[in-house]
Each structure stands twice: as structure tokens, then as C-alpha cells.
């Protein structure tokens, strides 16, 4: 025997919770999915698509980051461990060489500004025609 509101044993001996009416269950399952208008379409717009980063912008970010990291170092490191292509690594070397000279003459702030500017220009040139075409590491 069961008492009102208490769990009861099902056919397989499992305890069953209180039974929900089908309409209430359906309402709970669809809650939070957006309300439908008269035409059955959601009344709120879908969320915006995630932003994508262009190859040029990604190149600029990674070249500038690693240029700042190796500016005070005597070695550049391995371009593959930095996640750079050979072409991006060439941009980095050019940027760092110019930044070292600028840092000696005008200070760290000027070198930092130069890194951002030169990385952007080098990557813009590299990706102007849509990207490298001579293989993945060119």
C-alpha cells in the first residue's frame, strides 16, 4: 500500500516519483527554448554567430606577441614551437630587428609601438592576396 504523495514501487521494484500530467511535463521540457509566436517561429532572434579571426589578424597577434617575448633575448627560438609558419617567422625576425634598434634609440615604449605597427604591416602584405600558396609552412 502507498500513501498519497509518497514514492511507490513500480513493476520492476523501482521507486517512482509523483506522476506529472503530460501537459505539465511537456511545458517543463520546452521551457527556456524561446516562446513561439502565432506562426510557430521563435519570437526572439537567434544569438549572433561567433566572431571569426581573419588570417591577417591572427598573424598580427601572434607575431606581435612573440616579437615582444623575444625582444630582449639573444635567440629567436623555434618558429614551429611558437606556432608560426616560416613566412610569419620571417616577419617576426624583421620586426624584432627593427624593434631592438628602436628600443636602443627611443626606449621600450617606442619599440612596443613599432612591434604592433610593423607586425600589422608585415601580415597585411603577407595575406593581401588571400594567404600563402606554397604549402602550409611557407
Descriptive notes:
The chain has 138 residues and is an all-alpha fold. It has a domain at 55-127. Helix content is 48%, strand content 3%. It has helices spanning 22-30, 55-70, 86-106, 108-127; strands spanning 8-9, 15-16. A two-stranded antiparallel ribbon has the order 1-2. A hairpin with a 5-residue loop joins β1 (8-9) and β2 (15-16). The longest helix has 21 residues, at 86-106. It starts with 7 loop residues before the first strand and ends in an 11-residue tail after the last helix.
Mean pLDDT: 77
- Beta strands, count: 2
The Cα radius of gyration reads: 30 Å
Helix and strand succession?
EEHHHH
Strand content: under 5%
Molecular shape: elongated
Query: What share of the residues lie within helices?
Result: 40-55%
Low-confidence stretches: none
Figure out the total of helices.
4
- Give the structural class: mainly alpha
Distance between termini?
Answer: 78 Å
What does the main sheet amount to?
Answer: 2 strands, antiparallel
Q: From the structure provided, what is the oligomeric state, counting identical versus distinct chains?
A: single chain
Order of strands side by side in the largest beta sheet? 1-2
What is the structure about, briefly put?
This protein is mostly helical and 138 residues long. Helices cover 48% and strands 3% of the residues. It has a domain at 55-127.
Topology summary:
Layout: E1 8-9, E2 15-16, H1 22-30, H2 55-70, H3 86-106, H4 108-127
Features of this protein?
single chain, 138 residues, mainly alpha, two-stranded antiparallel ribbon, 2 strands, 3% strand, elongated
Amino acid at each position: 500500500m502507498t500513501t498519497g504523495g509518497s514514492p511507490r514501487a513500480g513493476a520492476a521494484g523501482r521507486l517512482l516519483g509523483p506522476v506529472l500530467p503530460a501537459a505539465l511535463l511537456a511545458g517543463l521540457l520546452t521551457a527556456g527554448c524561446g516562446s513561439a509566436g502565432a506562426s510557430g517561429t521563435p519570437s526572439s532572434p537567434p544569438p549572433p554567430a561567433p566572431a571569426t579571426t581573419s588570417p591577417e589578424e591572427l598573424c598580427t597577434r601572434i607575431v606581435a606577441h612573440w616579437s615582444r617575448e623575444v625582444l630582449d633575448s639573444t635567440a629567436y627560438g623555434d618558429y614551429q614551437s611558437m606556432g608560426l609558419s616560416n613566412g610569419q617567422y620571417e616577419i617576426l625576425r624583421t620586426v624584432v630587428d627593427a624593434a631592438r634598434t628602436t628600443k636602443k634609440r627611443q626606449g621600450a615604449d617606442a619599440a612596443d609601438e613599432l612591434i604592433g605597427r610593423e607586425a600589422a604591416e608585415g601580415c597585411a602584405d603577407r595575406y593581401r592576396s588571400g594567404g600563402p600558396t606554397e604549402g602550409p609552412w611557407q
